[in-house]
Design goal:
Layout: H1 2-10, H2 14-24, H3 26-41, H4 46-74, H5 77-97, H6 102-114, H7 119-131, H8 134-165, H9 168-187, H10 190-194, H11 211-240, H12 245-266, H13 274-289, H14 298-309, H15 312-326, H16 332-361, H17 363-383, H18 385-388
Helix pairs in contact: 2-7, 2-9, 3-4, 3-8, 3-9, 4-5, 4-6, 4-16, 5-6, 5-9, 7-8, 7-16, 8-9, 8-12, 8-15, 11-12, 11-15, 11-16, 11-17, 12-14, 12-15, 13-14, 13-15, 13-17, 16-17
Keywords: Membrane, Transmembrane, Transmembrane helix
Organism: Streptomyces gougerotii
Protein name: MFS transporter
């Protein structure tokens, strides 16, 4: 397994692109935490801190597909590097101006969020051209999903280290400088400079004109709901047990489960249509969330958290393949960016629903929201099976031949068009 991933990373440009993308995404992974810590250090209350963090998250969700469409139209370097610089300037303005007056602070986080470069979608668009073979691209998607879990676990820890060493304002600056450097590392690489999207049909809906992509996005909105609700319910569980460290253990256990699942999933070659496999993976993911509502002791709960995370990275990796199959020609970066957006919106909805559930019924109902979110995600996939399987009303394929060129062991990829 390790040897397979080692071979993957030894491919020319692969390690650089993966590492550069992860570093470039540090601001988006840690921005909400850095904003909260900064606002609190400036004397602002939790309400203001939460509001600014929420505005940042909303602006990021809006900006990702718009910038993704721009990347498909104009290429990666011309969009991603200026966007990363503007995003960094927005966070720098917040660190310099502070929270008084409020209007510039809100404007700064809007700029920072809206201009967050779509590095996730950009990397997934580059993999086919860099790695060539479809089985290696499939493994790269799994490795990408695993790396996300590592980043979202290590990123907040990195912010707290910077705050301890310097200050919350300095943490904002350092994280965003690193983000710009990561984006720079990606866009000056040969694959990024040479990559061109396929010719696209002019359409105001862009990637969203694909019924299969809409079905997938609907499902992963609810996967995001499940994950967002778990973060709130885990805090309540830690409060019930009188130890804040319990929350960290549960989040680390979720990440460990995803790490294990993604590593195993990406180590083998999968036969059959990914749409059908995705239904199985999302079903197993939903099943893993259900026992969390039992809220047993800390040791058992930590074990359940590991199990509940096992199928997350495989489901994401499989979803990346499905996105590429169903994205209309010339919209692949935008399509991947939409997945990022709906996932984030779903997580925000999950936190919003789980909060009242915990207030009214205690910790267990908070975790039941996660189970309900997983079940809803599966139901969407089941209800849209004909669309996702590439069949229209009378059995006519709706996935373009460009997106499914080979259709053998693993579906063809549309993302790897070169200049």
């Amino acid at each position: 397994m390790a040897a397979g991933y080692g071979e993957l990373l030894r491919a020319r440009h692969a390690a650089r692109l993966l590492c550069g993308t992860l570093v470039g995404r540090l601001p988006s992974a840690t921005g909400h935490i850095a904003i909260v810590l900064f606002v609190r250090s400036e004397g602002g209350g939790y309400a203001l801190a939460g509001a600014l963090a929420a505005v940042y998250g909303l602006a990021t969700a809006v900006g990702q597909p718009l910038l993704g469409r721009a990347v498909d139209l104009y290429g990666q370097p011309r969009v991603m590097l200026p966007a990363a610089v503007l995003s960094g300037i927005g966070m720098t303005a917040l660190a310099v101006v502070g929270t008084d007056p409020l209007l510039p602070a809100y404007a700064a986080v809007v700029v920072a969020g809206m201009c967050t470069p779509p590095l996730e979608g950009g990397l997934r668009a580059l993999w086919p051209g860099v790695l060539g073979r479809e089985d290696r691209v499939h493994a790269a998607y799994a490795l990408d999903a695993v790396a996300q879990e590592v980043m979202f676990t290590a990123g907040p820890l990195l912010v707290t280290v910077f705050v301890a060493w310097w200050s919350p304002g300095a943490a904002l600056l350092v994280i965003n400088v690193l983000g710009v450097l990561g984006a720079l590392s990606v866009v000056v690489s040969e694959p990024s400079r040479r990559w061109r999207s396929a010719p696209r049909e002019a359409h105001w809906l862009g990637a969203l004109r694909s019924p299969g992509l809409l079905a997938l996005l609907g499902s992963f909105l609810f996967v995001g709901v499940a994950l967002g609700s778990i973060t709130v319910a885990a805090v309540a569980y830690a409060d019930d047990h009188g130890r804040e460290s319990v929350y960290g253990w549960l989040m680390a256990a979720l990440g460990l489960g995803a790490l294990i699942g993604g590593a195993v999933y990406g180590a083998r070659r999968w036969a059959g249509e990914p749409e059908r496999r995705l239904r199985v993976l999302v079903g197993l993911l939903a099943l893993g969330y259900l026992p969390l509502s039992l809220t047993p002791g800390v040791a058992a709960m930590t074990g359940l958290a590991v199990v509940s995370g096992v199928f997350l990275a495989p489901a994401l990796a499989c979803a990346f393949v499905v996105v590429d199959r169903h994205a209309p020609p010339g919209t692949v970066t935008e399509a991947f960016s939409w997945l990022v957006t709906v996932f984030g919106v779903g997580a925000a909805l999950g936190t919003g629903v789980a909060g009242p559930a915990v207030e009214w019924g205690g910790t267990a109902p908070g975790f039941r929201v996660a189970g309900a979110g997983g079940a809803a995600a599966l139901l969407v996939l089941l209800a849209t099976a004909r669309v996702l399987n590439g069949r229209g009303r009378r059995g006519v394929p709706v996935v373009s031949s460009e997106n499914d060129r080979n259709g053998a062991v693993e579906p063809g990829f549309s993302a790897g068009h070169q200049a």
